[in-house]
Design brief:
Two copies of one chain form a homodimer. Chain A is mainly alpha-helical. Chain A folds into two domains: about 50 residues, Arc Repressor Mutant, subunit A (Orthogonal Bundle), CATH 1.10.10; about 150 residues, Tetracycline Repressor, domain 2 (Orthogonal Bundle), CATH 1.10.357.10. At the A-B interface, α6, α7, α9 and α10 of A face α6, α7, α9 and α10 of B. Chain A binds a DNA duplex (30 and 30 nucleotides) through α3.
Chain lengths: ~210, ~210
DNA sequence: AGTTAGTTTAATAAGTCTATTAATAATGTG
DNA sequence: CACATTATTAATAGACTTATTAAACTAACT
C-alpha cells in the first residue's frame, strides 16, 4: 500500500484534468468527461473548483510558471563561453518542451483566448526574464564589439530560439502523421532538430 | 446595384463562417452563431451544408489547397541564383501567412483534431511539393559540391523556413498583447522579422 | 393563373454542458 | 458515543448545441 495510492481526490482531478486539457484543449474538455475519466461524480469537480475556468486556471498557471522559471534559470550558465551559453539556452528550452510537448499548443490557444489571464501572468512573471536578459545582453554587446558575433539584439536571438523550438512541437502531431513516423524515427527527428536548432542560431550569430 | 450585392446566401454563409472559424476555431463556433452573424435562420446553414463538419471542411479544404499551391509555386523561381531562390521562398511563405495570419493556428488545431482530413489532404496534394523539392534538392547538391553551401538537406531547410515563419504568426496575438504593440509597431515587427528570417536561413546555409 | 422547384423559416427533438442543491456517506473531534 | 465537518452522490435547472421536419414563402415557367 503505497502512500500515493491514497492520493487525494482533489489531486487526482487536477492531474487528470491537466492531461485532458493538454490533449483536447479547454473548450473540448467538459467537466463531465473529466469526472468520468477520474471515476467520480461530476459535481465533485465543481465542489473543489467551483468552475471549470477555475480548475483550468489553477492548473495552467502553476504549470506555466514552472516551465517559465526553468526557461529563464541562469544558474547553469556561469563559466560558459557566450556561444556555449546560447547553446545551453537552446537545448534547455528544447528539452523543457520535449518533456511537455503538448504545452505549446495549449499556451498559444488559451492565452490568445484569455487575454486577462495573460495580463495576470505577465505581471506576476515579468521579473523572471530580467536577469537572463541583462546578463546576455551585456555579454552580447562585448562579443559584438570584439567582432566575434554579428550585430543583433538579444531579443531577436530569443525570438529565433523560441520560434524554432516551439514550431517543431506545434507541428509535430501533423509531421508524425504525414510522414507516418514510428517511435524510433520520431526520436531521431527530435534529436536531429535539437542539434539543428542550435546550429541555426549559432550560424546566425557568426559575424 | 453591384452584382455582388446579390451575393448568394450560400456564399455569404461560407465567407462569414470562414472568418468565425479563423477567429475562434471549430469547436468554439456554433452554427447558431454563424446564422446570427449572417442574419439568416440557423436551419439554413444545415440546408446548404447538412452538417457543421461539412461546412468547415469545404471551407478549410479549398483555403488550404489555395495556400498550399501558392507556397509550392515554382514559376517565380526561374533565373534566380540558388540563394535568391531560398530568399524568395522564405519571403513568399511569409507573405502568404501575412495575408492569412490566423490560418496557421487553425491548421495546427484542426489537422491535429481530424487526422482523417489530414490523410485526405495528403493524398490530394502530395504531388504539389514534388516539383519544388526536386528542383531545389538538385540545385542544393550542386551548391554543396561547389562548396558554396553547407552540407544539409532541403527538407531541413524547408523545416527551418516553415518553423520561423509559422511560429511568428502563432505567437503574434500573445506578442502583441505582452508588448502592447500598436499598429505601427506591429507593422515594424513584421517587416523586421521577415528580413530576419531570410537572414537566419541564409546564415545557416553558409559553409 | 397555376404548377413546380428552390429557398427560408418556425418548431422542436435529443443531446450535452455548466453549475447548483439537497441528501447521504465518511471522517474527525470533543 | 454524539456532534460537526468534510467528501461524495443523485437529481435537476437552465442554457446551448446540432440536426431534422414540415410548413411558408419566392421566383420562374407554362
Amino acid at each position: 500500500m503505497d502512500i500515493n495510492s491514497e492520493k487525494s481526490m482533489e489531486q487526482t482531478i487536477l492531474e487528470t484534468a491537466e492531461q485532458m486539457f493538454l490533449e483536447r484543449g479547454f473548450a473540448a474538455t467538459s467537466t463531465t468527461q473529466i469526472a468520468k475519466s477520474v471515476g467520480c461524480n461530476q459535481a465533485l469537480i465543481h465542489y473543489y473548483f467551483r468552475t471549470k475556468e477555475n480548475l483550468f486556471n489553477s492548473i495552467f498557471e502553476s504549470k506555466f510558471k514552472l516551465l517559465f522559471q526553468r526557461v529563464f534559470d541562469t544558474t547553469q550558465l556561469e563559466n560558459l563561453s557566450f556561444t556555449d551559453k546560447i547553446k545551453h539556452i537552446v537545448e534547455t528550452h528544447f528539452d523543457i518542451l520535449s518533456e511537455n510537448p503538448k504545452m505549446p499548443m495549449l499556451i498559444l490557444n488559451e492565452l490568445s483566448r484569455q487575454p486577462e489571464q495573460l495580463k495576470i501572468l505577465k505581471e506576476r512573471l515579468h521579473a523572471l526574464p530580467e536577469k537572463l536578459i541583462s546578463i546576455m545582453s551585456k555579454e552580447l554587446e562585448t562579443e559584438i564589439a570584439a567582432g566575434k558575433v554579428k550585430n543583433c539584439s538579444f531579443i531577436d536571438i530569443m525570438f529565433t530560439i523560441v520560434s524554432l523550438n516551439l514550431a517543431l512541437f506545434t507541428m509535430l502531431p501533423i509531421a508524425v502523421n504525414v510522414a507516418e513516423l514510428n517511435d524510433i524515427q520520431l526520436k531521431f527527428l527530435l534529436a536531429h532538430r535539437r542539434a539543428e536548432n542550435v546550429n541555426i542560431v549559432l550560424s546566425y550569430l557568426r559575424p
